[in-house]
Amino acid sequence: MYKIFIVTIVLLAVQLSYAQDSIKYADATTLMMVGKAKTTDSIYQRIDSVEAKEMPQAVKNLAKQSAGIAILFETNSRIIRAKWDLPKEVYLHNMTPDAHSGLDLYCFKAGKWQFVSIGRVAPGINQNQIIVQNMDSSLKQFMLYLPLYNGVSQLQIGVQQNATINKPTKPAVNTARRIVVYGSSVVQGASASRAGMAYPAILQRRTGFDWINLGFSGSAKMEMPLAKYLATVPADCYVLDCIPNPSPEEISERSYPFIKYLHEQQPAIPIVLVETIFRQNGLWDQQVGNTVKRQNEEIRKTYERLKKEGVKNIYYLETDKLIGNDHEATIDGIHLTDLGFTRMADAVLPVVKKALAEKK
């Protein structure tokens, strides 16, 4: 009888342990999503296919990537897993797999966001990973960033069977305050080590505002369909960090009508113009260095023209304020490291704050 009692106790302990560690999954669509400009036909893409119809093909393709989109949720689970499906396997020479196709988890602790861990990428398109385990069982608010340079067809977040997972009761991201950033690969997130280190994501955590990442790698060339789209996106401020991609000639031709249109459609919304970062390889490659110089000269001309015409609520950020002068902020002379993104965030934030404070 004593032996039976011991066996029963052991079995109950095993069953209890299994119940605590077995996982149930919540579809991310049932939780809170931030970092999206508008609703879309495919939930984890950045621009709706119908609204992208007149945009260049490269932008249409990049708009299907999930850069800047994040899921907010609360749970008291000691374990967080994730299952996510990618449309394709990606190789990028200047990015980590966990940045272009993985997940990045933060927790809101003591009044600020703190990095927790990543959802690492395994070979293949169907991913299923433990992100963190052995936590305490207090209720916590989390934010899970989606891949920077890949899409997501489905995402499920796993917690213990006996735990809760819900939308946050008091979200630490205020979706009523929106900063929309249109730009190049620097905006999209090349070459952050993980998704949360792209500078719009850094600024989202610092400010508590919802920063919308409309970075289109190599393809932010100020075409009018993009101006028309931006003008329909609710925003408290527009940041135009798109000068790295168009040629000096394209900037001369396109920047004035692009910015003029956006201002005319949304005259009360401040616009921050950001010069292109100085490409570090341009210190040696004279053609690159000269192109960057001319790009910035052309956008400066447009800015001064708009100011002379009496355009209000327009602000300007020069290249020498962006990534420092120690030549250590890029991975390849062009795309930024986490250090470079932190410096970009440091430079952009005061200008945006000033624009919001002076908003008329």
Question: What does this 3D model show about the protein?
Answer:
The protein is α/β, with parallel strands linked by helices and 360 residues long. The chain folds into two domains: 23-166, Jelly Rolls (Sandwich); 174-357, 3-Layer(aba) Sandwich (Rossmann fold), CATH 3.40.50. 31% of the residues lie in helices and 24% in strands. The chain has nine helices and 15 strands. It has helices spanning 2-21, 57-62, 97-100, 185-188, 199-207, 224-230, 248-265, 286-308, 338-357, and strands at residues 23-27, 32-34, 70-75, 80-85, 103-109, 112-119, 126-132, 140-145, 154-160, 165-166, 174-183, 209-215, 237-241, 271-274, 314-317. Strands 2, 3, 5, 6, 8 and 10 form a six-stranded antiparallel β-sheet that branches. Strands 12-11-13-14-15 form a five-stranded parallel β-sheet, with helices on both faces. Helix 7 links the parallel strand 13 (237-241) and strand 14 (271-274). Helix 5 crosses helix 9, helix 6 (224-230) packs parallel to helix 7 and helix 7 runs parallel beside helix 8 (286-308). The longest helix is centred in the last third of the chain and has 23 residues, at 286-308. The chain starts with a helix and ends with a helix. Residues 23-165 form the SGNH hydrolase-type esterase N-terminal domain.
Q: How many domain regions?
A: 2
What is the name of the CATH architecture of the largest domain?
3-Layer(aba) Sandwich
Terminus-to-terminus distance: 82 Å
Rg calculated over all Cα atoms: 23 Å
Give the number of helices.
Answer: 9
β-strand percent reads 15-25%
CATH superfamily of the largest domain: SGNH hydrolase
Provide the CATH topology of the largest domain.
Rossmann fold
Q: Say how many strands there are.
A: 15
Oligomer: single chain
Give me the secondary-structure category. Answer: alpha/beta
Which CATH top level class of the largest domain fits?
Answer: Alpha Beta
Mean pLDDT: 94
H/E topology pattern: HEEHEEHEEEEEEEHHEHEHEHEH
What fraction, in percent, of the residue positions are helical? 25-40%
Q: What is the general shape?
A: globular
Please outline the major beta sheet: 6 strands, antiparallel
The low-pLDDT segments are 1-20
Domain SGNH hydrolase-type esterase N-terminal: 23-165
Pfam families: GxDLY, Lipase_GDSL_3
Signal peptide: 1-19
Protein name: Hydrolase
